[in-house]
Amino acid sequence: MSIDLERHGAVAVMTFNRPDKRNAMSYDMRLQMEQAAIEVRDDPAIRALVVTGAGDKAFCAGGDISSFDMGPLEMRDRLKQQHRTTLSLFYLEKPIVVAVNGLAVGVGFNIALLGDVIFAAEHAKFSQIYSQVGIVPDGGGLWLLAQSVGLHKAKELILTAEMIDAAQAKALGFVREVFPKDRLLDEAMAFAEKLADGPTRALGLDKALLHRGLGVDFESFLELESVAEVYVMQSEDHKEAIDAFMNKRTPQFKGR
User: Fold this and answer.
1) How far apart are CA 234 and CA 231, in angstroms?
2) Could you tell me if 61 and 106 are in contact, meaning their C-beta atoms sit under 8 angstroms apart?
3) What is the CATH number of the domain that holds 171?
4) pTM for the full model?
5) Which of 32, 70, 109, 186 could form a disulfide with 74 if both were Cys (CB 3.0 to 4.6 A apart)?
6) How far apart are CA 98 and CA 100, in angstroms?
7) How far apart are CA 49 and CA 70, in angstroms?
8) By residue range, what is the domain housing residue 109?
9) pLDDT at 69 over 70
């Protein structure tokens, strides 16, 4: 398997495990990633996800270019599958913490942007490298990057294929923290565990509203908000929070 999925209590860790190829994304890896995302989605015991790469050279060095030579119909089928994988992470109603342990270029950069919180190793580097091979960004990169850094900075990074380091990524705002490589995964896990202790249903609805709210007018968004509010106020976690507040104690959320 080129995608490993391990469970550590309420946190699952998805690892791109193809270090000899700098974790470049093959078609089989995309299929495995889709299945892993579905498994995380459907298991209520998993309340947060960490995504990282094997080794310390690369998080994901983009798509495997050896698999690019195909006809338009086959390419279309593969892109449809890639879109399913992208959306399975984008719409996952559980927190996603990404630990970028090295190079994150092309679709590797865009997979990282699907995370809710991104940590990076000090030696990590990012690039929308597509113009160097004469293609358009995939994996939702144009949209995700513009949402993350603003339209004009996104244009600059995409048109120039500039390689930026972890400190620059933090300055741009899409990386939360930068750590030495030997601390990166531990820090990502600790943060994910904290999120996994939270009210999972409410956090999931927070993500859903943020994502869907980008494409609607304010009045329509308020209607979405009201539906989510009515739903989540019936959850066990909300009732636990109210009881904890009234009795001056720390709530113990169970993700229900």
Assistant:
1) 6
2) yes
3) 3.90.226.10
4) 0.90
5) 70
6) 6
7) 33
8) 3-196
9) no
Q: Give domain status of residue 58, yes or no.
A: yes
Q: Which residue is associated with the tokens 């009201």? A: 226
Q: Give the pair of three-digit tokens for residue 25.
A: 């994304």
pLDDT tens string 96-131: 999 999 999 999 999 999 999 999 999 999 999 998
What is the CATH number for 204? 1.10.12
So what's the pLDDT on residue 18? 94
> Do the strands 3-8 and 164-165 form a parallel or antiparallel pair, or are they unpaired?
unpaired
Give domain status of residue 154, yes or no.
yes
The answer to whether residues 106 and 161 touch, using CB atoms and an 8 Å cutoff, is no
Nearest to 153 by CA among 174, 133, 179, 135: 174
pLDDT tens-digit map of 134-167? 888 888 999 999 999 999 999 999 999 999 999 9
Decide: residue 82, CB within 10 A, 0-12 exposed, 13-18 middle, 19+ buried. buried
Supply the DSSP symbol for 117.
Answer: E
- Looking at residue 122, the DSSP 8-state letter turns out to be T
Q: Please, are residues 29 and 22 in contact by the beta-carbon 8 Å criterion?
A: no
Residue 172 lies in a domain: yes
Question: Is the per-residue pLDDT at 214 higher than 90?
Answer: no
Q: Which two tokens stand for residue 126?
A: 């990012």
